[in-house]
Specification:
It is a single chain. By secondary structure, the chain is of the alpha+beta class. The chain has two domains: 354 residues, Outer membrane efflux proteins (OEP) (Up-down Bundle); 61 residues, Single Sheet (Outer membrane efflux proteins (OEP)), CATH 2.20.200. It contains ten helices and four strands. A four-stranded antiparallel β-sheet has the order 1-2-3-4, with no helix packed on it. The N terminus and C terminus are likely disordered. Its main location: membrane. It is found in: Cell membrane; Membrane. Keywords: Coiled coil, Lipoprotein, Membrane, Palmitate, Signal, Transmembrane, Transmembrane beta strand. InterPro entries: MdtP/NodT-like (IPR010131), OMP_efflux (IPR003423).
């Protein structure tokens, strides 16, 4: 028992507002909140650990509509149709709307709530219970009409943290939508260039078929003249079915590529009406030559991962606030009477106001388990962010390496193709002049065809890699990352 000198008198207690006294008691009871030993373990990766040089020369930003740089009207139209009707993009947009609705719901919890209650009851009261006369055993009408109001006083920031978490998730969904947009456009462009590659290979296969038909006619003439044997004739005839098979195989691949492109755009058979230009007619856009130091701010998927860390951190704060008292201010005002005729009389008025306080004391570990789960979610969000960073740097590095290698390969291939074309012409001239055999012609033709296929493949790969690099660099996305993450990057594990 406390010493007498420290006991407050009854009069002094009455002089203290009851609500202030309750708040004082609650402040003392908050010592019951115990979440010690539960803390995040993951640590955010920082830019230097990824090998990004902040002092490196800046890389020009990518235009949000970068596909116009290829100067192909059909590609522009396909992208516009995809952005308008793609189911995958609409799905991402629906998720964004769902996240925004959750934000509105969390915001509503921070504001006062007002409702109305109107009821009328025709009731017989018990004659043998606790109901006093003259109500006992009688049948009466009762009515109530009143307004109710409540407001949770968020002293410990639970609702505010929940709102911030919902805002973070909404921002993450918004970034996911932009990431889906960049991915969709890049897939359309790459599928379009793949279709051009197959079409180029088909044209080459048709030229090969025509060339072999001409050679067959030449062999037949030489056999008729007694200059060649049936061996050369059978060899020439056998090369035609092989060329026809290659043409048919490419026709099949083109049909499948058109179907895939139409599916991406979201309009069946839209790719069937395309008039495919040659790969050489596609302009190339400017590309980066190094990994930009601000790569992390260029990619929507990384921005989404950062916002999820922010949301998970606020979820942890909200879970910690669950350990503290929950205080609601409630009130009502209206009319209540027995007998509907008396409902709106002044004597039927009623009102009330007061706090409602809930303090968790023993919950069998439910709150600690909830906090531990939210903390694990934060660790998972941080590690997902770290994985996205590493993957982004690798992605850009891969595309840069491929881009540089393809440029060197194209230079060497052009020289090899010029040599093989010259060797083929010499072999044909020697065969016509009777100075060489048909096997020499076939060998030289095989080298030419291989170089022509390689030329088409390298041209298509150059365009494909350029699109992949643009996507890896963010596709024109401008990040809007939470500042608190940058401020807390070094101490997220504390």
């Amino acid at each position: 028992m406390a010493p007498k000198s420290f006991r407050p008198s009854l009069r002094s207690l009455r002089s203290v507002p009851r609500f202030a006294l309750a708040a004082t008691v609650l402040a003392a009871l908050t010592a019951c909140a115990n979440y010690s030993g539960i803390r995040p373990e993951a640590t955010l990766r920082e830019t230097p650990s990824l090998g990004l040089d902040a002092a490196a020369a800046p890389v020009a930003s990518i235009d949000a509509e970068w596909w116009h740089g290829f100067q192909d009207a059909q590609l522009d139209q396909l992208v516009a149709q995809a952005l308008e009707g793609s189911p995958s993009l609409k799905l991402a947009q629906a998720r964004l709307r769902r996240a925004q609705a959750a934000t509105e719901l969390a915001d509503a919890a921070t504001l006062p709530q007002i409702g109305a209650d109107v009821s009328a009851t025709h009731q017989k009261y018990t004659a043998t219970g606790a109901v006093p006369a003259p109500l006992a055993g009688s049948i009466r009408d009762t009515g109530t009409a009143q307004l109710t109001a409540s407001w949770e006083l968020d002293f410990f920031g639970k609702n505010r943290a929940a709102l911030d978490a919902a805002l973070g998730q909404a921002k993450a969904a918004q970034a996911d939508t932009q990431a889906a947009r960049v991915l969709l456009v890049s897939q359309v462009a790459r599928s379009y260039f793949q279709l051009l590659r197959l079409d180029g290979q088909l044209q080459l296969a048709n030229r090969t078929l025509a060339q072999r038909s001409e050679l067959l006619q030449l062999v037949q003439d030489r056999v008729s003249a007694g200059l060649d044997t049936r061996l050369e004739l059978k060899q020439s005839e056998g090369s035609l079915p092989e060329a026809r098979q290659q043409v048919e195989a490419l026709n099949e691949q083109i049909a499948l590529a058109r179907n895939a492109l139409s599916a991406l755009v979201g309009k069946p058979n839209v790719a069937d009406a395309l008039k495919l230009p040659a790969l050489a007619a596609i302009k190339t856009a400017a590309n980066a030559q190094a990994i930009p130091a601000d790569l992390l701010g260029r990619r929507a998927d990384i921005a989404a991962a950062r916002w999820r860390i922010e949301a998970a951190g606020q979820d942890v704060a909200s879970a910690k606030a669950q350990f503290y008292p929950n205080i609601n201010l409630v009130g009502f005002a209206g009319f209540s009477s027995i007998g509907l005729g008396n409902l709106l009389q002044s004597n039927s008025q009623q009102w009330g106001i007061g706090p409602a306080i809930h303090l968790p004391i023993f919950d069998a570990g439910r709150l600690r388990a909830g906090l531990r789960g939210k903390t694990a979610d934060l660790d998972a969000a941080v590690e997902s962010y770290n994985a996205a960073l590493v993957d982004a740097v690798r992605d850009v590095a891969d595309q840069l390496a491929s881009q540089q290698s393809i440029a060197l390969q194209q230079t060497q291939q052009q020289q090899a193709q010029a040599a093989s074309e010259a060797a083929y012409e010499i072999a044909v001239q020697r065969y016509r002049a009777g100075l060489g055999n048909y096997l020499n012609v076939l060998s030289a033709e095989t080298a030419v065809l291989a170089q022509r296929r390689l030329q088409v493949d390298l041209a298509a790969r150059a365009l494909d890699t350029q699109v992949a690099l643009i996507r890896a660099l963010g596709g024109g996305y401008t990040a809007n990352a939470p500042e608190s993450i940058a401020a807390r990057a070094g101490g997220i594990s504390g």
